[in-house]
Write a structure and sequence with these properties.
- The chain is built from 12 helices and no strands.
- Helix 6 packs antiparallel against helix 9.
Length: 273
């Protein structure tokens, strides 16, 4: 029976060429950002006028940039922790329990994944103004929670669906209460997926622009700082250097989260043997 499906594991050269071409077209514009960040000239053009690290060194002397960076780190840290803490029991409840209207409820939770950020930002701004809540980093964190929580649940659902529940049943048979079974069995076995969820939501919150644009008030986050500095051509090379650092930082976090997801898949395969 298995021999019938061996064709799926053969190398598909046309598909590989298409995937490589798609990735090239998608990421080629991004590759120009680090290239021009080392250009000694102010204007973005070929040929490059020279090679320099001055734009990177200049970033360390900008206090507004440092404040915006730490604001983004604070918001992303809080949002990632809260999103993960809320997503774990939510994903467990979706997988383990039957409840009336579960499918529409799950669809409602995932709705921010398909709604444009502009619409969500305007809607939340109107709601907060109606409630009389002053715009601050707190409101930015609320907006980021709306976006990050569905991502967190979507990351955890596949892991909990494929988790071998016989381990939990064995713990229960040995007299462990549910909460100790969770901390001693469920949580350690699913830790790679939970950590991947934490890193992914941190990255999403750190880079998110629309919610910060509508909900930040006078406290600036890093994407808002970059948006404000685009008005000044002489600052554009420094923004390219900053964008290069953000791209590298985001790539590292996403790469680690994907690797952790693979670790979780390997662990799940070991449980099923």
């Amino acid at each position: 029976m298995m021999a019938r499906y061996t064709g799926f594991h053969r190398t598909n050269r046309p598909l590989a060429v298409y995937a490589a071409l798609f990735a090239f077209v998608l990421y080629l514009p991004i590759l120009f950002i680090p290239i021009f960040s080392f250009n000694s000239g102010v204007y973005v053009k070929f040929p490059l006028e020279g090679f320099t690290f001055d734009w990177y060194a200049e970033l360390w002397h900008r206090e507004p940039l440092q404040r915006a960076f730490f604001n983004s780190v604070k918001v992303a840290t809080v949002v990632s922790l809260l999103s993960t803490l809320l997503a774990v029991p939510a994903a467990l409840a979706i997988v383990r329990y039957r409840m009336p209207g579960k499918a529409p409820a799950v669809g409602f939770l995932m709705l921010p994944l398909v709604l444009p950020g502009l619409i969500l930002g305007v809607a939340l701004l109107g709601l907060l103004n109606r409630l009389g809540i002053t715009l601050s980093l707190f409101t930015v964190a609320l907006g980021h929670m709306v976006i990050c929580l569905p991502y967190a649940i979507s990351v955890l659902l596949p892991r909990f669906i494929g988790f071998n529940r016989s381990l939990e049943e064995a713990s229960a048979d040995l007299g462990e209460p549910p909460w100790r079974t969770f901390w001693r069995v469920t949580f350690p076995c699913n830790f790679p997926a939970i950590l991947a969820c934490l890193l992914m939501t941190f990255t999403i919150s750190f880079d998110e622009f629309f919610m910060a644009f509508f909900l930040s008030g006078t406290e600036t986050t890093l994407p808002m700082y970059i948006w404000g500095q685009l008005r000044f051509p002489q600052d554009f090379p420094s923004l390219l250097a900053l964008s290069t650092l953000i791209l590298g930082f985001s790539f590292v976090l996403v790469f680690i989260s994907l690797r952790l997801g693979r670790v979780g898949q390997a662990a799940r395969a070991g449980e099923m043997r």
